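TL;DR need structure tokens for one chain.
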Amino acid sequence: MSKTIPIRQRIRQAILLTSMLLFPVTMNYLSPYVVMDGAVQGLLMASPIIFTLQFITALFFGRFFCGWICPAGAFQDACLGINNQPIKNHKIDWIKWMLWFPWLGTILYFLGKAGESIKFDPLHLTETGVSVDNPVKFITYYLVVLLFVLAAVLIGRRGGCHVYCWMAPFMILGRKLGNAIHLPGLHLKADPEMCTGCKTCTANCPMSLNVNDMVMNRQMENSECILCGKCVDNCHTQAIYYNFR
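>> reply
TL;DR here they are.
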């Protein structure tokens, strides 16, 4: 007998599926290459605005984007049937930071070099507004998809999110700032007394977090948590729940 998927998770999966289908349209707006290419030419385009918005929204909603909207996450979740193994060594999380700092530093260097001559071109390399608007661009599209699919298949659950996602650091820093200045935000809470120790929460976490330990320690905050709610919706005793404070 198949397990019934909680309604909230059906909605989340529907949103992720929609995001995945729209990726040929949105790819350049999330691209780490397009923003770099523009910065070298002294251009400010749509993608840095989106990265900034991710940082701002993370002040209140953490990495909600990763768990509910991100097309790269959707592609990786589609690979769970191939490799559903959790990431055991979380030291690999630092790899994305080692890539992110020089990437961001280079962008800021070229924008700073351009100074007052910076021009705003929101549709740089996306003149029609659609990222993949001719057959040749499908090569780039499939290479990007392959990058995340291979990470999920070879490394494990959402491997690309751990290793080389360039958007995650913006949201991680936004979340940390929000917590530091005590802004109200969406987060998980847990009641250890309600927990039976079944570890269903840990088994369902797409980011390979030891959620059961987090519950028992009353420490539900984790920079790799994407607030997908799978632990919430699969907890039989409702020991984990969303909260906004």
